[in-house]
Amino acid sequence: MTLDKPKELSIVRRFFLQPASPKQRQYEALRAYFIEGRPAPEVAVAFGYSTGAFHVLCHHFRRDPAPAFFVSPRHGPQSQPKKSAARDHIVRLRKQNHSVYEISQQLKEQGRPLSPTAVREVLKAEGFAPLPRRADDERPPYPRATAEAVADVRQFQLGPRRFSTACGGLFLFVPDLVRLQLDPLTQQASLPGSKLIPSAQALRACLALKLWSIERKSHVMALVADEGLALFAGRNVFPKKSFLSEYSSRIDHAQTVKLLAAWQAQTLGESLAPGESFNLDFHSVPYYGQHPLVERHFVSMRSRRQPSVLVFLAQDAGSHAFCYANADLRKGEEPQQVFTFVDFWKRTHGTRPRHLVFDSKLTTYAGLARLDALGIDFITLRRRSPQLLKDIVLLPRSAWRTVELDVPTRQYRTPRYYEQTVVLAGCKLRQMYLQDLGHEEPTILLTNQRHLTPKRLITRYAQRMLIENALSDAVRFFHMDALSSAVGLKVDFDMALLVVASGLYRLLAQRMRGYAHAQARQIFRDLINLPATITVSQSEVEVSFHRRSHLPIILASGLLDKPVRVPWWPGHSLRLSTHTSPPSAPES
What are the tens digits of pLDDT across the range 6-38? Predict the structure, then answer.
């Protein structure tokens, strides 16, 4: 069959004027420019280039001594020698009911390694179907992880024995757990439990993961056989990752709020939350999966918006401990979270917070006016609009005042400030422009504290960086960004555990000389990460710490050699002591 002349010419013209491959398009465009003498803009439009991109193409063409436009592409290898050489052996092993992993291991031992994927491709090409899943007793004997006993509190016994544990430092938290009566918290919060694992033991197990800085629930399998970890939680063995990942799914936001309220009630009168001032902030916990409930928020560590769970956090400025967290947030609810915290604090302590320090995006100007009407002092930032930046630039140099901050460790101690009164959302506020505070752009402070001196005002806001440091410590040590699931409820419970764990670390730090303001990861590295030998007698559990360089600090804390009656160890007390090795035999 032949084409008519006009149609044939149309096809030929289309082949040259509308090239299909990138190399042919480059060739026709360059030929039209260099041979036919057509203008560069016209050629660029005709062949789908921008003018700048076409000039770059011409530049590279002039400097390429041997451009390749019509060289046939190199084809990859048409045969697979390793697969072909092992094909008969693979088929023979499959006929003996060996799995792809066993076949791959045998090939590796014979010096001709082949991956399980390659073995699977050979078997599929030969027409073999996958083997049905086999039970453990049907598989060939090879080293594998042991199956530990089922966690059952009814099998928990304190018979006389002696063993070593890598988690000896966890028992330093037991005196505070006993004194603060952690077990009643589970009843007040109505936390779920079962006959095998009651709610109190479940909470202690989840809390132990936070205190020992275990990143994900699955990582507990490396320590599931540690008897000391199980003894801390009051169980025969520590629960597996399946229970730990499923448990928090049964806890809703209302129970989490009850748990935080009960924790605040138990720590009332402690130095854990003086309540003089609070630092407030948001933190986005990144999520790398797909889930309809997870919204996109700005993640500062990535400098972009991505799916994440937004968390509201409150930190006591005096003790540096987190005292409130909420991860059950949706977009549009951010400005109201400060008032949710105010209501929570009033319910648990009877009074509203006296002083709040937060960033500019935490609430709106109407929210600031509402805080002022409630009689709550605050310090916040104002966003730098172009008009405000212009006003700052136009200020004469004589309008600025210099103040020296009483912070010896701070690099920028002599900032300049300009003060004025502004009205925002019907509320009269004190506005202060700050220069030379360590930022390229000026800082704009807003506060309703009209009688506080500029020096104290600037110093207090500079201390807000403490919550940034605490967030960094929580991300690195308490693993805030290691999501346990896709939904926010699990993260909500995880943040409640963060509040309790950070409080326990702060209480312990106050006992240790020189560690009152240390971050949790330093406390763990120096004082908590201690192996120990545990001796269980008829009425006492003695935890003897092995020799470490920071052990004298623990000795001076007053925690050792003072028996503590532990409610979840029936009839037994805890005694912390130092490890004493038997004297060596004299030389003959």
Answer: 666 566 667 676 777 788 888 888 888 988 889
* Confidence at residue 579, expressed as pLDDT on a 0 to 100 scale: 63
Q: CA 482 to CA 109: how far, in whole Å?
A: 38
What is the value of pTM for the model shown?
0.74
Decide if 554 contacts 527 (C-beta within 8 A). yes
Q: Are residues 523 and 535 in the same domain?
A: no
In a domain, 149, yes or no: no
Alpha carbons 86 and 84: distance in angstroms, whole number: 6
> CB neighbours (10 Å) of residue 380?
25
Measured CA distances, 512 to 272, 428, 555, 564, 574 (Å): 15, 46, 9, 19, 20
Same domain, 535 and 522: no
Q: Check if the beta carbon of residue 564 is closer than 8 Å to that of residue 180.
A: no
Total Cβ atoms within 10 A of residue 425: 13
* Domain that includes residue 563, residue range: 531-578
Contact 392, 433 (CB under 8 A): yes
Contact 542, 154 (CB under 8 A): no
Q: Which pLDDT tens digit goes with each residue over 151-174?
A: 888 888 888 999 999 989 999 999
Could you tell me if 100 and 173 lie in one domain? no
User: What is the torsional sign of CA 329, 332, 334, 336?
Assistant: negative
By residue count, the chain amounts to 588
Claim to verify: residue 367 and residue 427 sit in the same structural domain: yes
pLDDT given at position 586 = 40
| 363 and 402 both lie in a single domain | yes
Query: Which residues have C-beta within 8 Å of that of residue 254, sequence separation ≥ 6?
Result: none
